[in-house]
Amino acid sequence: GAGVSQSPSNKVTEKGKDVELRCDPISGHTALYWYRQSLGQGLEFLIYFQGNSAPDKSGLPSDRFSAERTGGSVSTLTIQRTQQEDSAVYLCASSFGQGEYNEQFFGPGTRLTVL
Amino acid sequence: GQQVMQIPQYQHVQEGEDFTTYCNSSTTLSNIQWYKQRPGGHPVFLIQLVKSGEVKKQKRLTFQFGEAKKNSSLHITATQTTDVGTYFCAGPNNAGNMLTFGGGTRLMVKP
């Protein structure tokens, strides 16, 4: 079956513009995560969705970042008024059920460059 | 809050040498997972350890979970260039509803 997919694979934008990044998790996976990874760095947790529960937004770095998940499936991460420090690879992952014992399946990521 | 630390951050080895990365948690973990990220790629699940003192092997890779379930290690015997990448450990957060990733160890192998 298909893995986690993300689009676009690359996005170049100008400072101050808004961007939307999309994630299609594996079918049947109820948990979805967004991470940010700057060049050569680790994984920075952004937000977590589990089923119909309220998302855990504790990792969002500012109010310019928001995410939603429609119908318990596809998720969109929106960054408003992008800044150069937002440049990074944005990774989405999904897992079956809550994340404690379940492995996370990562998508290929979206490389965001803010000029 | 819970922290998961990994050392070293970087390791250069000559092909054929052994490599070990260590993972330490500030709290006791119910399980620990290991992921590998190849250069330009995304993290891929390698293994999960659940039991105290557990040791699991995958070919040249040996994974260990400490007796106190607060630390773990990944040892690669006779590294090959295909082992190049960043190795992350991850443990459940305090709420037990998702994973906290360590900072990763980047392995570079000279042929």
Q: Describe it for me?
A:
The complex is a heterodimer of chains A (115) and B (111). Chain A is mainly β and 115 residues long. Helices cover 0% and strands 45% of the residues of chain A. Chain A is built from no helices and ten strands. In chain A, strands 2, 4, 5, 8, 9 and 10 form a six-stranded mixed β-sheet that branches. Chain A has a four-stranded antiparallel β-sheet with strand order 1-3-7-6, with no helix packed on it. In chain A, strand 4 and strand 5 form a beta hairpin. The model of chain A has no long low-confidence stretch (mean pLDDT 92). Chain B is mostly beta strands and 111 residues long. Chain B is built from no helices and eleven strands. The radius of gyration of chain B is 13 Å and the shape is globular. The mean pLDDT of chain B is 94.
Provide a brief overview of the structure.
The complex is a heterodimer of chains A (115) and B (111). Chain A has 115 residues and is mainly β.
List keywords for this structure.
heterodimer; A: 115 residues; mainly beta; 6-stranded mixed β-sheet; 4-stranded antiparallel β-sheet; 10 strands; B: 111 residues; 5-stranded antiparallel β-sheet; 11 strands; 0% helix; 54% strand
Topology:
The complex is a heterodimer of chains A (115) and B (111).
Chain A: E1 5-7, E2 10-13, E3 19-24, E4 31-37, E5 44-50, E6 65-69, E7 75-79, E8 88-95, E9 105-106, E10 110-114
Parallel strand pairs in A: 2-10
Antiparallel strand pairs in A: 1-3, 3-7, 4-5, 4-8, 6-7, 8-9, 8-10
Chain B: E1 4-7, E2 10-14, E3 19-25, E4 32-37, E5 44-49, E6 55-58, E7 61-65, E8 71-76, E9 85-92, E10 99-101, E11 105-110
Parallel strand pairs in B: 2-11
Antiparallel strand pairs in B: 1-3, 3-8, 4-5, 4-9, 6-7, 7-8, 9-10, 9-11
Number of helical regions of chain A: 0
Tell me roughly what share of residues is in helical segments of chain A: under 10%
- Biggest sheet details of chain B: 6 strands, mixed
| Shape type of chain A | globular
Overall geometry of chain B comes to globular
Largest interface: A-B, 24 and 24 residues
Strand pairing plus helix content of chain A: what structural class?
Answer: mainly beta
Calculate the mean pLDDT score of chain B and round it.
94
Helix content of chain B: under 10%
Gyration radius of chain A (Cα, Å) is 13 Å
Strand content of chain B: over 45%
